[in-house]
Specification:
Elements (H helix, E strand, L loop, with lengths): L1 E6 L2 E7 L5 E3 L3 E2 L2 E6 L8 H8 L6 E3 L5 E2 L17 E3 L6 E2 L12 E5 L4 E2 L12 E5 L8 H7 L4 E7 L2 E7 L3 E7 L4 E7 L2 H4 L3 E2 L2 E2 L1 H6 L1 H7 L2 H13 L6 H13 L1 H11 L1 H11 L3 H12 L4 H14 L10
Parallel strand pairs: 2-5, 3-8, 5-9, 8-10, 9-11, 10-12, 12-13
Antiparallel strand pairs: 1-2, 1-6, 4-5, 6-7, 13-14, 15-16, 17-18
Length: 324
Protein backbone atom coordinates (compact mmCIF):
# COMPACT_ATOMS: atom_id res chain seq x y z
CA UNK A 1 0.00 0.00 0.00
CA UNK A 2 1.06 3.60 -0.62
CA UNK A 3 1.29 6.51 1.82
CA UNK A 4 0.13 9.77 0.26
CA UNK A 5 -1.22 13.28 0.78
CA UNK A 6 -3.71 15.38 -1.12
CA UNK A 7 -2.07 18.69 -2.02
CA UNK A 8 -4.11 21.26 -3.98
CA UNK A 9 -6.28 18.58 -5.60
CA UNK A 10 -3.26 16.52 -6.57
CA UNK A 11 -1.57 13.54 -4.92
CA UNK A 12 1.94 13.35 -3.50
CA UNK A 13 3.31 9.84 -2.85
CA UNK A 14 5.19 9.61 0.45
CA UNK A 15 6.24 5.96 0.47
CA UNK A 16 5.26 2.34 0.13
CA UNK A 17 4.55 -0.42 2.63
CA UNK A 18 4.44 -4.07 1.64
CA UNK A 19 6.41 -7.04 0.41
CA UNK A 20 6.26 -6.60 -3.37
CA UNK A 21 9.66 -5.78 -4.85
CA UNK A 22 8.08 -4.48 -8.05
CA UNK A 23 6.19 -1.24 -7.36
CA UNK A 24 3.76 0.32 -9.84
CA UNK A 25 2.60 3.76 -8.70
CA UNK A 26 -1.06 4.36 -9.69
CA UNK A 27 -2.04 7.23 -12.00
CA UNK A 28 -4.89 8.36 -9.77
CA UNK A 29 -5.88 7.96 -6.13
CA UNK A 30 -9.42 8.78 -5.10
CA UNK A 31 -10.03 10.44 -8.47
CA UNK A 32 -7.02 12.79 -8.16
CA UNK A 33 -3.92 12.61 -10.36
CA UNK A 34 -0.68 11.39 -8.80
CA UNK A 35 1.81 14.11 -9.76
CA UNK A 36 4.66 13.94 -7.24
CA UNK A 37 7.02 11.70 -5.31
CA UNK A 38 8.18 13.30 -2.08
CA UNK A 39 11.80 13.57 -1.01
CA UNK A 40 13.12 10.23 0.34
CA UNK A 41 9.86 8.54 -0.77
CA UNK A 42 11.47 5.16 -1.44
CA UNK A 43 14.67 5.55 0.54
CA UNK A 44 15.39 4.14 3.97
CA UNK A 45 16.69 5.40 7.27
CA UNK A 46 16.59 8.83 8.82
CA UNK A 47 15.71 10.71 5.63
CA UNK A 48 12.32 9.10 5.20
CA UNK A 49 11.56 9.15 8.93
CA UNK A 50 12.42 12.84 9.14
CA UNK A 51 10.29 13.61 6.08
CA UNK A 52 7.28 11.77 7.53
CA UNK A 53 7.63 13.33 10.98
CA UNK A 54 7.75 16.85 9.54
CA UNK A 55 4.47 16.58 7.61
CA UNK A 56 1.63 18.88 8.56
CA UNK A 57 -1.09 17.56 6.25
CA UNK A 58 -2.85 14.26 6.95
CA UNK A 59 -1.12 11.08 5.76
CA UNK A 60 -3.50 8.74 3.92
CA UNK A 61 -3.29 5.16 2.63
CA UNK A 62 -4.33 3.48 -0.61
CA UNK A 63 -3.97 0.02 -2.11
CA UNK A 64 -1.94 -0.96 -5.18
CA UNK A 65 -4.77 0.08 -7.54
CA UNK A 66 -5.11 3.53 -6.01
CA UNK A 67 -8.21 2.88 -3.90
CA UNK A 68 -8.15 4.81 -0.58
CA UNK A 69 -8.21 2.51 2.46
CA UNK A 70 -8.07 2.79 6.22
CA UNK A 71 -6.41 0.35 8.58
CA UNK A 72 -5.17 0.11 12.12
CA UNK A 73 -1.55 0.94 12.75
CA UNK A 74 -0.82 -2.55 14.05
CA UNK A 75 -2.16 -4.05 10.81
CA UNK A 76 0.14 -2.03 8.57
CA UNK A 77 2.71 -4.03 6.58
CA UNK A 78 6.32 -2.96 7.10
CA UNK A 79 7.93 -0.23 5.03
CA UNK A 80 9.60 -1.86 2.07
CA UNK A 81 13.27 -2.59 2.73
CA UNK A 82 16.08 -1.37 0.53
CA UNK A 83 16.97 -5.00 -0.15
CA UNK A 84 13.47 -5.75 -1.41
CA UNK A 85 12.90 -2.94 -3.89
CA UNK A 86 13.81 -4.16 -7.41
CA UNK A 87 11.66 -2.26 -9.91
CA UNK A 88 9.65 0.98 -9.92
CA UNK A 89 7.09 1.97 -12.54
CA UNK A 90 5.92 5.58 -12.52
CA UNK A 91 2.82 6.85 -14.38
CA UNK A 92 2.94 9.60 -17.00
CA UNK A 93 1.13 11.91 -14.57
CA UNK A 94 4.28 12.33 -12.42
CA UNK A 95 5.61 15.89 -12.77
CA UNK A 96 8.00 16.12 -9.82
CA UNK A 97 10.36 13.82 -7.91
CA UNK A 98 11.82 15.12 -4.66
CA UNK A 99 15.44 15.03 -3.51
CA UNK A 100 16.97 11.60 -2.77
CA UNK A 101 13.70 9.81 -3.61
CA UNK A 102 15.59 6.53 -4.28
CA UNK A 103 18.49 7.12 -1.91
CA UNK A 104 20.50 3.94 -1.22
CA UNK A 105 18.08 1.61 -3.03
CA UNK A 106 21.08 -0.53 -3.94
CA UNK A 107 18.96 -3.45 -5.19
CA UNK A 108 16.91 -1.28 -7.56
CA UNK A 109 17.55 -2.54 -11.11
CA UNK A 110 14.82 -0.98 -13.28
CA UNK A 111 12.96 2.31 -13.49
CA UNK A 112 10.18 3.06 -15.97
CA UNK A 113 8.91 6.62 -16.27
CA UNK A 114 7.87 9.43 -18.57
CA UNK A 115 10.54 11.73 -19.99
CA UNK A 116 8.28 14.71 -19.32
CA UNK A 117 9.03 14.97 -15.58
CA UNK A 118 9.64 18.69 -15.19
CA UNK A 119 11.24 18.81 -11.73
CA UNK A 120 13.88 16.25 -10.76
CA UNK A 121 15.40 16.57 -7.30
CA UNK A 122 19.10 16.22 -6.57
CA UNK A 123 20.77 12.97 -5.59
CA UNK A 124 17.88 10.85 -6.86
CA UNK A 125 19.97 7.74 -7.47
CA UNK A 126 22.65 8.17 -4.83
CA UNK A 127 23.63 4.67 -3.72
CA UNK A 128 21.59 2.96 -6.47
CA UNK A 129 24.55 0.87 -7.62
CA UNK A 130 22.35 -1.91 -9.02
CA UNK A 131 20.47 0.24 -11.56
CA UNK A 132 20.74 -1.43 -14.95
CA UNK A 133 17.60 -0.70 -16.99
CA UNK A 134 15.78 2.55 -17.74
CA UNK A 135 12.52 2.52 -19.70
CA UNK A 136 11.83 6.10 -20.75
CA UNK A 137 8.72 7.30 -22.62
CA UNK A 138 9.00 10.56 -24.52
CA UNK A 139 5.95 12.83 -24.70
CA UNK A 140 5.39 14.77 -27.91
CA UNK A 141 5.86 18.52 -27.45
CA UNK A 142 7.31 18.25 -23.93
CA UNK A 143 10.91 18.66 -22.82
CA UNK A 144 12.74 15.41 -22.10
CA UNK A 145 14.48 14.79 -18.78
CA UNK A 146 16.57 11.89 -20.14
CA UNK A 147 19.77 13.94 -20.07
CA UNK A 148 19.30 14.79 -16.39
CA UNK A 149 18.56 11.16 -15.44
CA UNK A 150 21.64 9.89 -17.29
CA UNK A 151 23.83 12.43 -15.50
CA UNK A 152 22.75 10.87 -12.19
CA UNK A 153 23.51 7.30 -13.26
CA UNK A 154 27.19 6.52 -13.81
CA UNK A 155 27.01 2.76 -14.27
CA UNK A 156 26.58 0.89 -17.56
CA UNK A 157 22.94 1.36 -18.45
CA UNK A 158 20.49 -0.21 -20.91
CA UNK A 159 17.92 2.38 -22.00
CA UNK A 160 14.66 1.55 -23.75
CA UNK A 161 13.93 4.79 -25.62
CA UNK A 162 10.22 4.92 -26.53
CA UNK A 163 8.78 7.70 -28.69
CA UNK A 164 6.02 8.34 -31.22
CA UNK A 165 8.67 8.04 -33.99
CA UNK A 166 9.75 4.58 -32.87
CA UNK A 167 11.69 2.70 -30.22
CA UNK A 168 15.40 2.17 -29.69
CA UNK A 169 17.49 0.12 -27.27
CA UNK A 170 20.55 2.13 -26.28
CA UNK A 171 23.56 1.20 -24.18
CA UNK A 172 25.42 3.85 -22.20
CA UNK A 173 28.90 2.83 -20.98
CA UNK A 174 29.93 3.35 -17.40
CA UNK A 175 31.13 6.82 -16.48
CA UNK A 176 34.51 6.66 -14.73
CA UNK A 177 35.64 9.81 -12.96
CA UNK A 178 38.80 10.11 -10.86
CA UNK A 179 39.94 12.99 -8.67
CA UNK A 180 43.71 13.44 -8.59
CA UNK A 181 45.43 15.82 -6.20
CA UNK A 182 48.03 18.11 -7.78
CA UNK A 183 50.01 18.87 -4.63
CA UNK A 184 52.35 21.65 -5.90
CA UNK A 185 49.43 23.61 -7.34
CA UNK A 186 47.13 22.70 -4.43
CA UNK A 187 44.30 21.79 -6.77
CA UNK A 188 42.20 18.71 -7.51
CA UNK A 189 42.16 17.56 -11.12
CA UNK A 190 39.24 15.49 -12.39
CA UNK A 191 40.07 12.88 -14.99
CA UNK A 192 37.54 10.95 -17.09
CA UNK A 193 38.21 7.36 -18.17
CA UNK A 194 36.42 5.46 -20.90
CA UNK A 195 33.81 7.18 -23.04
CA UNK A 196 30.76 7.00 -20.77
CA UNK A 197 30.82 10.79 -20.40
CA UNK A 198 30.89 11.27 -24.19
CA UNK A 199 27.76 9.18 -24.65
CA UNK A 200 26.00 11.27 -22.03
CA UNK A 201 26.69 14.39 -24.11
CA UNK A 202 24.72 13.20 -27.17
CA UNK A 203 22.09 15.90 -26.79
CA UNK A 204 21.09 19.17 -28.42
CA UNK A 205 19.63 21.03 -25.47
CA UNK A 206 17.36 18.26 -24.11
CA UNK A 207 16.86 16.39 -27.40
CA UNK A 208 18.76 13.14 -27.86
CA UNK A 209 20.86 13.03 -31.06
CA UNK A 210 21.18 9.57 -32.56
CA UNK A 211 23.84 10.60 -35.10
CA UNK A 212 26.09 11.87 -32.30
CA UNK A 213 25.58 8.62 -30.39
CA UNK A 214 26.48 6.46 -33.39
CA UNK A 215 29.36 8.74 -34.36
CA UNK A 216 31.16 7.88 -31.11
CA UNK A 217 31.76 4.27 -32.12
CA UNK A 218 35.48 4.78 -32.98
CA UNK A 219 36.02 6.03 -29.40
CA UNK A 220 34.14 3.01 -28.05
CA UNK A 221 36.41 0.62 -29.94
CA UNK A 222 39.58 1.87 -28.28
CA UNK A 223 38.30 2.76 -24.81
CA UNK A 224 35.75 0.12 -23.79
CA UNK A 225 35.62 -3.65 -23.29
CA UNK A 226 34.31 -6.11 -25.86
CA UNK A 227 31.23 -6.75 -23.73
CA UNK A 228 30.24 -3.06 -23.79
CA UNK A 229 30.92 -2.80 -27.53
CA UNK A 230 29.01 -5.99 -28.30
CA UNK A 231 25.98 -4.99 -26.24
CA UNK A 232 25.79 -1.58 -27.90
CA UNK A 233 26.20 -2.97 -31.42
CA UNK A 234 23.57 -5.72 -31.22
CA UNK A 235 20.99 -3.53 -29.45
CA UNK A 236 21.49 -0.72 -31.96
CA UNK A 237 21.11 -3.03 -34.96
CA UNK A 238 18.10 -4.75 -33.40
CA UNK A 239 16.28 -1.41 -33.01
CA UNK A 240 17.74 0.81 -35.77
CA UNK A 241 15.71 3.96 -35.09
CA UNK A 242 17.33 6.91 -36.92
CA UNK A 243 20.35 4.74 -37.78
CA UNK A 244 22.22 6.17 -40.78
CA UNK A 245 23.35 3.80 -43.55
CA UNK A 246 27.07 4.41 -42.94
CA UNK A 247 26.78 3.78 -39.21
CA UNK A 248 24.77 0.61 -39.85
CA UNK A 249 27.55 -0.69 -42.12
CA UNK A 250 30.14 0.01 -39.41
CA UNK A 251 28.11 -1.81 -36.77
CA UNK A 252 27.47 -4.77 -39.06
CA UNK A 253 31.16 -5.08 -39.94
CA UNK A 254 32.01 -5.33 -36.26
CA UNK A 255 29.22 -7.84 -35.60
CA UNK A 256 30.24 -10.15 -38.44
CA UNK A 257 33.85 -10.11 -37.28
CA UNK A 258 32.92 -10.80 -33.64
CA UNK A 259 29.79 -12.89 -34.15
CA UNK A 260 30.67 -15.55 -31.60
CA UNK A 261 31.55 -13.06 -28.86
CA UNK A 262 28.43 -10.94 -29.44
CA UNK A 263 26.25 -14.06 -29.49
CA UNK A 264 27.38 -14.92 -25.94
CA UNK A 265 26.15 -11.54 -24.78
CA UNK A 266 22.89 -11.63 -26.73
CA UNK A 267 21.92 -15.15 -25.69
CA UNK A 268 22.03 -14.13 -22.01
CA UNK A 269 20.42 -10.72 -22.52
CA UNK A 270 17.48 -11.50 -24.81
CA UNK A 271 16.77 -14.81 -26.56
CA UNK A 272 14.48 -13.15 -29.12
CA UNK A 273 17.20 -10.68 -30.06
CA UNK A 274 19.75 -13.50 -30.23
CA UNK A 275 17.62 -15.56 -32.63
CA UNK A 276 17.01 -12.47 -34.77
CA UNK A 277 20.77 -11.91 -34.93
CA UNK A 278 21.39 -15.49 -36.06
CA UNK A 279 18.73 -15.24 -38.77
CA UNK A 280 20.13 -11.94 -40.04
CA UNK A 281 23.87 -12.48 -39.68
CA UNK A 282 24.57 -16.18 -39.07
CA UNK A 283 25.81 -16.85 -42.61
CA UNK A 284 29.18 -18.41 -41.83
CA UNK A 285 28.69 -22.13 -41.22
CA UNK A 286 31.82 -22.56 -39.09
CA UNK A 287 30.83 -19.71 -36.77
CA UNK A 288 27.22 -20.88 -36.76
CA UNK A 289 28.23 -24.38 -35.67
CA UNK A 290 30.43 -22.92 -32.95
CA UNK A 291 27.47 -20.95 -31.60
CA UNK A 292 25.22 -24.03 -31.75
CA UNK A 293 27.79 -25.91 -29.69
CA UNK A 294 27.87 -23.09 -27.16
CA UNK A 295 24.06 -23.13 -26.87
CA UNK A 296 24.04 -26.91 -26.41
CA UNK A 297 26.26 -26.58 -23.34
CA UNK A 298 23.86 -24.08 -21.74
CA UNK A 299 21.05 -26.63 -21.24
CA UNK A 300 18.43 -24.59 -23.14
CA UNK A 301 16.69 -27.18 -25.31
CA UNK A 302 14.04 -24.89 -26.83
CA UNK A 303 16.64 -22.36 -27.94
CA UNK A 304 18.84 -25.12 -29.32
CA UNK A 305 15.87 -26.51 -31.27
CA UNK A 306 15.34 -23.12 -32.97
CA UNK A 307 19.01 -22.95 -33.87
CA UNK A 308 19.07 -26.48 -35.30
CA UNK A 309 16.00 -25.78 -37.43
CA UNK A 310 17.62 -22.63 -38.76
CA UNK A 311 20.84 -24.52 -39.44
CA UNK A 312 19.03 -27.23 -41.46
CA UNK A 313 17.35 -24.59 -43.61
CA UNK A 314 20.43 -22.48 -44.13
CA UNK A 315 23.06 -25.20 -44.50
CA UNK A 316 21.23 -28.25 -45.92
CA UNK A 317 23.23 -31.47 -46.02
CA UNK A 318 24.53 -32.29 -49.47
CA UNK A 319 23.25 -35.48 -51.03
CA UNK A 320 25.84 -38.20 -51.36
CA UNK A 321 26.58 -39.48 -54.82
CA UNK A 322 27.65 -43.06 -55.48
CA UNK A 323 29.38 -44.36 -58.60
CA UNK A 324 29.94 -47.97 -59.59
Amino acid sequence: MFLYQNINDQVRILGYRGFNGSIRVPETIGGLSVTELSSYAFSGGWGREEMLSSLKEEVLLCDEEGNPISTKKEDLPPAISLEGLKEIYLPETIEKIGNYAFYNCFELTRLECSAAIADLGSGLFTGCSGMRYLDIHLVEGKRSCLKEILSELRQKLFVNYNSSQGNARLVFPELYEESIEHTPARIIIREMHGCGHLYRYCFDQADFQFHKYDGLFPHLLVQESESVIGDLVINRLYTPMNLLYHDKMVYEAYLLEHLEGVSKLAINEDETMFLWMMKEYGRDQVKFDSIVEMASKMDRPELLSHLMNLRRRRFPAKKREFSL
